[in-house]
Write a structure and sequence with these properties.
Blueprint lengths: L24 E2 L11 H8 L15 H11 L6 E4 L2 H12 L6 E2 L8 H7 L4 E2 L21 E4 L11 H10 L5 E4 L20 E6 L12 E5 L1 H11 L9 H12 L1 H24 L2 E3 L6 E6 L4 H10 L2 E2 L1 E2 L9 E4 L3 H15 L1
Parallel strand pairs: 1-11, 3-4, 5-6, 6-7
Antiparallel strand pairs: 2-8, 7-8, 9-10, 10-13, 12-13
Bound molecules: 4'-deoxy-4'-aminopyridoxal-5'-phosphate (PMP).
Length: 350
C-alpha cells in the first residue's frame, strides 16, 4: 500500500439500518409510514420515457417554481439538490470557510461533524441544557457560522421563530443555517425571515413530510446572493444533481397540498397518542415537534430494549453517544405499527 499516505481517510456518517426483510416494523430512520401523494405516482407513470435520453434541466426550474409559489417567494430564493444531505454538504462547502469554529449543539444530526471533517471546517459544540434545549447565549460568541436543526434531532424539540430571530440578530456577520428536515410536523418555518436576513439559509427535505426519502430531493431557501453562491458551487461539482424523474415527482408532490396536510395530521395524531402510551409504560418522553420521539425508560436500559425489539423484528434507533446512550429514537409509524410496538414493549417490560 505505497499509496496509503496519499489518500483521504474519513469516518463516515452511519444511517439507520436498512433490512431486506419486508416484515420488519421499521421505526429507525424517520421515514414516513404513508406512501407519497398519488399525484407523484401519476406524474412519474405518465413521464415520457424517451426523454430519459436527454439531460435533466440543470436549473430545476419547474420544481423551483412550485416551491416558490408554495412559500410565496421568488425562484431566485430557491435551491434544490439530491436530498437535503446534498444541499447541506454544498452549504457547508459554500458558507463555512472561516478559521473560526462553526457552532452546532452537542446533541444533534450526526452528519454535521462528518462534513466538518471532510471539508476541514473547525467546529465547537455548545451543550444543550439538562432538558435538551439549545442555550441561546452559547451562540453569542465569535464563530465561523452556525447550523442548528429546528426542530432538533434526535431530541425532537422545536423552538419558535422569535428564538431563531434572536439567534440571527446576534449573528449577522456569519451564515446561519436552519435545518428544517422535520419542521412540517409542528414547528414554524423560518423561510419568511429570508427577506429580512440575507445571511439566513433554510434547508428542507422531501424525505420526511412528503414520504419521498427514496426519490432524494431537498431544498434551500435564502437571499438571491446566497442562492447564487450555492448554484456556483454546485455547478463546479455536479450540475445534474436531480434526475428527470425526481424533478417531476417532487414537483407533483409540492402541488398536492391536501395530501401533504392530511398525512401530517395523521402522523401528529399518532405521535400524541404514542406519548400517552409511552408514559403509561414508564417511559420519559421529550416534547416532539417531529415524526419521532426520543424516549428513555426509568428501569430498563435503552440498549436492552433496542436489542429485544430487534429480536421481535421492530427496528428503532439507538445511539451509543454521550448523554443520549440511555435513549431510543423511535419514528412514528402507522397506528397499527405503533400498536405492535406497544404490545412488544409490554412483553419486554413484563
Ligand atoms: N437533516 C436532518 C436533521 C436529518 O435528520 C436528516 C435525515 N437523516 C437529513 C437532514 C437528511 O435527509 P435527506 O438527505 O433524506 O433529505
Amino acid at each position: 500500500m505505497l499509496w496509503a499516505d496519499k489518500i483521504r481517510v474519513v469516518k463516515p456518517y452511519v444511517p439507520g439500518e436498512q433490512s431486506k426483510n419486508q416484515n420488519i416494523i421499521k421505526l429507525n430512520a424517520n421515514e414516513n409510514p404513508y406512501p407519497p401523494s398519488p399525484e407523484v405516482k401519476k406524474a412519474i407513470s405518465e413521464f415520457d420515457f424517451d426523454t430519459l435520453k436527454k439531460y435533466p434541466d440543470a436549473n430545476s426550474m419547474e420544481l423551483k417554481s412550485a416551491l416558490a409559489e408554495n412559500y410565496n417567494i421568488k425562484t431566485e430564493n430557491v435551491f434544490v439538490g439530491n436530498g437535503s444531505d446534498d444541499v447541506l454538504a454544498l452549504a457547508f462547502m459554500s458558507f463555512f470557510n472561516s478559521n473560526k469554529p462553526i457552532l452546532f449543539p452537542d446533541i444533534t444530526y450526526s452528519f454535521y461533524p462528518v462534513w466538518c471533517s471532510l471539508f476541514n471546517i473547525p467546529y465547537e459544540n455548545p451543550a444543550l441544557d439538562d432538558n435538551f434545549r439549545i442555550v441561546l447565549k452559547d451562540y453569542e460568541k465569535e464563530n465561523g457560522g452556525i447550523i442548528i436543526p429546528n426542530p432538533n434531532a434526535p431530541t425532537g424539540i422545536g423552538e419558535n421563530l422569535s428564538f431563531i430571530e434572536e439567534l440571527l440578530q446576534k449573528n449577522q456577520d456569519v451564515i446561519v443555517i436552519i435545518d428544517e428536515a422535520y419542521v412540517d410536523f409542528g414547528c414554524e418555518s423560518a423561510i419568511p425571515l429570508i427577506e429580512k436576513y440575507n445571511n439566513l439559509v433554510v434547508v428542507q427535505t422531501f424525505s420526511k413530510s412528503r414520504s419521498l426519502a427514496g426519490l432524494r430531493v431537498g431544498a434551500a431557501f435564502a437571499s438571491k446572493e446566497l442562492i447564487s453562491i450555492l448554484e456556483a458551487v454546485k455547478n463546479s461539482y455536479n450540475s445534474y444533481t436531480l434526475d428527470s424523474l425526481a424533478l417531476v415527482g417532487a414537483t407533483a408532490s409540492v402541488k398536492d397540498k391536501k395530501y401533504f396536510e392530511e398525512t401530517i395530521k395523521k402522523i401528529i395524531n399518532t405521535r400524541e397518542n404514542a406519548v400517552c402510551e409511552f408514559k403509561k409504560l414508564g417511559f420519559k418522553t421529550y416534547e416532539s415537534k417531529t415524526n419521532f420521539l426520543l424516549v428513555s425508560h426509568e428501569k430498563i436500559h435503552a440498549k436492552d430494549i433496542f436489542l429485544k425489539l430487534k429480536e421481535k423484528d421492530i427496528f428503532v434507533r439507538y445511539f451509543n453517544s454521550k448523554r443520549i446512550d440511555n435513549c431510543l429514537r423511535i419514528t412514528i409509524g402507522t397506528d397499527e405499527e405503533m400498536d405492535k410496538l406497544f404490545s412488544a414493549l409490554k412483553e419486554i417490560l413484563a
